[in-house]
Amino acid sequence: MPNATFDSTASIEDEINEKILSVSEDRLQGFIADPFKEIARLTGLPLSVVLERIRAMFCAGTIRRIRLTLLANDLAPGALVAWKVPENILQRAFDFLFQKDPFSGHVVIRSTLPDAAGSLYRLWSTLKVPQGFSLERHCKILKNFIEAEHYKIMPAKGIFTLGVGHIRRKTTPPGTKADTLASMHPVSLKKLTDKQWQVLGVLKKELTLEEIDEGLWEKRARSIGIESHEFFSIAKELEKMGILGRFSTFLEHVKPLYDGKRVTRFNALFHWAVPPGREIEAGSQIGRFEILTHCYWREAGSEFRNVNIMAVAHGKDKELLESHKKAIDDHLELVGIPVSYTNIFWGGRSEIKPSEIFPEAYKQWLQKMGLDSDTILNC
After folding, report:
1. Which residues are 63's β-sheet partners?
2. For residues 161 and 292, is the Cβ–Cβ distance under 8 A?
3. Predicted confidence (pLDDT) per residue in 343-357, tens digit
4. Mind listing the domains of the chain with CATH numbers?
5. CB of 340 within 8 A of CB of 305?
6. How much of the chain exceeds pLDDT 70, in percent?
7. InterPro entries recorded for this chain (predicted)?
């Protein structure tokens, strides 16, 4: 996109935009009747300014997508998957997961020290498979398509932190943490009614430019022939079930923006191995640290020296991210939680898209890829 097309009203370094993004990235939790009005209220800015600036950033690509996120681990079996792929086909495997598998979400090529546990697992992806289908079977299908040598499936057993707010975190000093422990959201599949799935389908759709306005959900309700009061009631039901995440304006993580600026440069995946039985205690302590955008309990197994707590942090300065990691390590020692192994996997090439979670979409994908859905279902 030519630089001359946009002015500073689309820049992440503009003071008004920083104020908006510090709220709009990850501060709007659950279902909010009019999210843009809420951003205006929390920032103290006029609604007209909020709408103008978000539209400008969206048109410039500063904001890459706007949507209501879901806690999709409660709607579809999900996992972080590490793939061992020959180096000469690594980029091709990345392209397949990002371009041809709608159930793979965040796809990253990662690296670590050569002698670190799991260093040969360079390709990482998040994966959701709709209810009624198998994570293991889907990974076997993908293994054949991308010619992987091996893969490791790491489902989330608990979520301590989830919320990507890059702008508000960029000045966070190492060691900054909440006064209280992070609570763990246990992962458990929820069953929805047909009407709830219908409403969920329009809640999760990405916004178009024309939808950056007041009355977003009323218009979405009309699009599926439901009265606003019923739509809002069902949305609140979904919120109470713990399925809805946050209304968010997503920024590019690493790619240069229209003006050459970057939101972040480094994506760090932190690993810790803590004693079995102390995962919740450790995750509750680690999840307090403000720099973290994600923190999960995942069992990585012997290939990764039995790592069981993982967290993600982003930033422009690699040494500063290492200082954040050290502050967390020092805190774990201070509170008496032993760590038998720890490491950092650094992200390189990266792409993100929402994972598809609807069963019908999975059947359509199987057909498109020349696979038989009945055979897959019975595996």
Report:
1. 251
2. yes
3. 999 999 999 888 999
4. 1-61 (no CATH), 78-187+258-359 (3.30.70.3460)
5. yes
6. 91
7. AsnC_trans_reg2 (IPR040523), HTH-Siroheme_Decarb (IPR050684)
